[in-house]
Amino acid sequence: MRQAVSVSYPAAPSPRARPDAHVARWIRRTLAEDPPRARSLVITVWGDSLAPHGGEVWLAGLIRLLAPLGINERLTRTSVFRLARDGWLAAETHGRQSRYRLTPEGRARFEAAYRRIYAPPASDWSGEWEIVIDPPLTARAAERARLRDELRWDGFGTLASGLYVRPRTDGDAAAEVARVGARARAIVLHAHDVADPGAQTLAARVAAVWDLASLARSYRQFLARFGRVIDRFRMRDIEASDPGQCFVVRTLLIHAYRRVLLRDPRLPPAVLPLDWPGAAAFALTRDFYRLTEARAEAHLAALLSVNGSTLPPADDAFYDRFGGLPR
Questions:
Q1: pTM for this model (two decimals)
Q2: Domains of the chain with CATH codes
Q3: Residue by residue, what is the 3-state secondary structure of the chain?
Q4: Predicted confidence (pLDDT) per residue in 145-171, tens digit
């Protein structure tokens, strides 16, 4: 097991730091109106806060970390047990204490999801499309469904049964097909729309292939829910902000953003509506993350320094999030 290394976060909050009553009310109201599911929130906390620091945690520390987010000890234990049962986590026992770490499979799952969460939206696009054809009658229904679900996860839309498309950016459709064992049957193509003013184009079919209207509503609800509380942090000197509140709001923000973003195919601006709210949601999340990074990380370090261990420093990938965080 990797040895813990001391990390130089502030040992204690600024004497001026204190909980803000407005933020506290917002947290209580948000948890009451939209209580997060325990397992899903544990995944958010592990991917957002624990994975950059080695992906290991004492169960007692995790229980303390999740309590202000409305997840009690029983729910935390149950969620962690199920994640371990499903292969995401592995446990080590030290007397009556348990320490959990990401398995290689669990780390791969987190890295795939969180690369999308912290990556800036697509900007440039050559106009080229990736097309995957899964011919009928070449595989069992379950195998075809597995490929369909994998491609949807990676931003493909369904143009017709067994026919999937997405703008070609930095993805690799052939690798994604191979990952689910469909290389021998699925066909991967690259194509451009015909430059004919009267011809139907893939770009014109975007609204039919992807449910952008529903996704836009979700983004606007996200912006409305978090915009005001984030403005409250911006109005104050960040050094006077309570580290615990910084961590809780950051976690709820990432949790909500993750739920919307993982439904988003991340299409380039050239094929999106002019008033697309996804870019604003990314900017809001990025700016708050940068604003509160030091305070939230200090809270994390303080709560997880248990059983004689200290929190390892964040890895380089953490500081690459959202295009770069201050070190």
A1: 0.88
A2: 1-121+220-327 (1.10.10.10), 128-192 (3.30.70)
A3: CCCCCCCCCCCCCCCCCECCHHHHHHHHHHHHHCCCCHHHHHHHHHHHHHHHHCCEEEHHHHHHHHHHHCCCHHHHHHHHHHHHHCCCEEEEEECCEEEEEECHHHHHHHHHHHHHHHCCCCCCCCCEEEEEECCCCCCCHHHHHHHHHHHHHCCCEEEECCEEEEECCCCCHHHHHHHCCCCCCCEEEEEECCCCCCCCCCHHHHHHHCCHHHHHHHHHHHHHHHHHHHHHHHHCCHHHECHHHHHHHHHHHHHHHHHHHCCCCCCCHHHCCCCCCHHHHHHHHHHHHHHHHHHHHHHHHHHHCCCCCCCCCCCHHHHCHHHCCCC
A4: 998 988 888 889 999 999 999 998 877
